[in-house]
Amino acid sequence: MVQYTLEVEGMQCGMCESHVNDAVRRAFRVKKVESSHGKNRTRILAEEPLDEAALRQVIDDTGYTVRSVKSEPYEKRGLFASWSK
User: Fold this and answer.
1) 77: burial class by Cβ within 10 Å (0-12, 13-18, 19+)?
2) Among candidate residues 74, 45, 42, 38, the one with its CA nearest the CA of residue 58
3) Phi, psi for 45 (deg, rounded to 5)
4) Contact yes or no for 69/52 (Cβ under 8 A)
5) 0.90 cut: is pTM over it?
6) Which pLDDT tens digit goes with each residue over 9-19?
7) 85/82 Cα distance (integer angstroms)
8) Alpha helices per DSSP H over the chain
């Protein structure tokens, strides 16, 4: 799994967060997407790597601006995660 952290400029409220989240869900197969207008951040969790240029375009098309994209491998952490190794 891959986790993306995007700095998104222009979100002002919860409705803005919903617009970004819905646009990402419509364009890509993702496990989870959450946005925070207070932190100017969107986090996306996907099974497979996403096309970063397409990701930027999808969000830019909603009227918000992606300032940066950071991707990193994601490993689920939980109470029993260490037992499975």
Assistant:
1) exposed
2) 42
3) -115, 125
4) yes
5) no
6) 999 999 999 99
7) 6
8) 14-27, 52-60
